[in-house]
Write a structure and sequence with these properties.
Blueprint (H helix, E strand, L loop, with lengths): L8 E8 L5 H11 L5 H13 L15 H6 L6 E6 L4 E6 L7 H8 L4 E7 L6 H12 L4 E7 L8 H17 L4 E6 L23 H7 L12 E3 L2 E3 L11 E5 L4 E3 L3 E5 L3 E10 L2 E3 L1 E3 L3 E6 L10 E4 L6 E10 L5 E2 L3 E6 L2 E14 L6 E3 L3 E2 L4 E12 L12 E5 L6 E7 L19
Parallel strand pairs: 1-3, 1-4, 4-5, 5-6
Antiparallel strand pairs: 2-3, 7-16, 8-9, 9-15, 10-14, 11-12, 11-16, 12-13, 12-15, 17-23, 17-25, 18-22, 19-20, 19-24, 20-21, 20-23, 24-25
């Protein structure tokens, strides 16, 4: 088990149904971990008094939008940064209302842990299953079930045990391997930061203790190196007349000077001649560093190309993917879209909506005419240019993409690539004018 250090960083997201107390939980976590500034707390106390509340409403620490405070619900994804002596945190507080489920995709897409909140009085509901499905779909490695409002069920162990067993079984059916259930009362502070005196039957960690000690990150050397080119640097100055570097952020793995690499989608091979980081030469770079890579051979490389070390993905124009639709405009077969993968954007056609996933039963509902907002389904896409995608199961960064409306640039759909077709049949490609 990886030991947390003072410099380690955990990105985590919270999710829960409306009125499950999620914003109160986040507020309690920030307040009891001494992560709230005095003026922030004073503002919350003032707002609480204006609403006729004697005690400060800690939910107001995260519900920052005026509409959120007036309605008492979370609408937008609120990011909070805090730290304890053991770890630093980036928290994405996502909405609970079904209308804003798409926002959880945004918040959980980079998270290493998801806290799914349930009301002890209601147990596992449809939104709980939906949030668990999204966490599984996005391959979030760790999930915490926070059973809230235990004070309203008299801190009864059987109530907690039944909810934990139901959720754990459902999460296991989704392929989630690491699930921890914690009984809490966000309002009273039980088992959030400090252990509860009311639940001596619970022997596990508090929520914060688990957040501080859960293993984070992975060994970069265990992943193949993927370097999407963001910018080509050619100063052509007297001092550096022949300099040619490729700037970007290493998406995964480790690059070393001398490594053999493949440039995709062209397929040209070469070696790493040099690495520049923060204006200095380096022998090594690891994800997620932003560096400039110099290659031994003069190859035609532009923004959007992928420099890959180790087993390289096969470039393809035909993509099968699981997607979460984020836009009010439905996604239908025949739609012409833009597909953004790392730093590369190409035109694409939605050839087929294979099926929609029923969140309640996890069954594949075929025959869907399209995907509506918050729907999760499977699609087949055809791109105008070949893309080098990894399977999302193997690499979250280079296995994900976005579908964009070419008319106004709005994001339509988040995609997770599955196994791509290795055979590219150019005869099926749409005519060039069809993409305008």
């Amino acid at each position: 088990m990886t030991t947390a250090t003072a410099t380690s960083l955990l990105r985590f997201a919270t999710a829960g149904s409306v009125d499950d107390g999620k914003s109160t939980l986040v507020g309690r976590l920030l307040h009891d971990s001494k992560s709230v500034l005095a003026d922030q707390l004073e503002a919350v106390e003032h707002a609480s008094r204006n609403r006729g509340q004697e005690a400060p409403d800690l939910a107001l620490l995260t519900d920052g939008l005026r509409a959120e405070r007036e309605q008492g619900i979370t609408i937008d994804v609120a990011y909070r940064y805090f730290a304890t002596p053991r770890r630093r945190f980036i928290l994405a507080d996502t909405p609970g209302h079904v209308q804003y489920t798409r926002n959880m995709v945004t918040g959980a897409s980079t998270a290493e842990l998801a806290v799914v909140l349930v009301d002890a009085r209601n147990g596992v509901v449809e939104q709980t299953r939906r949030h668990a499905a999204v966490a599984a779909l996005l391959r979030v490695p760790h999930v915490v079930l926070a059973v809230n409002k235990m004070d309203l069920v008299e801190y009864t162990e059987p109530v907690f045990a039944a909810i934990a067993a139901e959720f754990t079984a459902y999460a296991a059916s989704l392929g989630v391997k690491d699930v921890l259930a914690v009984p809490i009362s966000a309002l009273a502070g039980d088992n959030v930061v400090e252990p509860s005196a009311h639940m001596d039957w619970y022997g596990g960690p508090t929520l914060l203790e688990h957040l501080e000690t859960v293993p984070v990150g992975s060994d970069p050397s265990a992943e193949p190196a993927r370097f999407p080119v963001q910018y080509v640097i050619r100063p052509q100055t007297e001092e550096h007349p022949d300099y040619r570097g490729y700037a970007g952020q290493l998406a995964s793995g480790v690059l070393r000077v001398g490594d053999a690499v493949t440039v995709l989608p062209s397929g040209h091979t070469t070696t790493v001649a040099g690495i520049d980081a923060l204006g200095r030469e380096s022998d090594i770079a690891w994800a997620p560093q932003s560096v400039t890579v110099r290659l031994a051979d003069d190859i035609d490389i532009s923004r959007g190309d992928l420099i890959a070390a180790g087993p390289a993905p096969v470039p393809t124009k035909d993509i099968e993917a699981t997607v979460s639709h984020l836009n009010e405009r439905p996604l239908r077969a025949g739609d012409k879209v833009l597909l953004k993968h790392t730093t590369r954007t190409v035109r694409a056609l939605v050839k087929e909506i294979s099926y929609r996933i029923d969140i309640d039963t996890l069954e594949q509902r075929s025959g869907a005419e399209g995907l509506n907002v918050n729907d999760i389904g499977h699609v087949v896409l055809r791109t105008a240019e070949p893309l080098a995608l990894d399977s999302y199961t193997d690499n979250r960064r280079t296995g994900s993409f976005l579908l964009i409306d070419p008319a106004d640039g709005t994001t339509l759909t988040a995609g997770m690539a599955g196994e791509a077709f290795e055979t590219v049949r150019t005869t099926d490609a749409p005519d060039e004018e069809d993409w305008v």
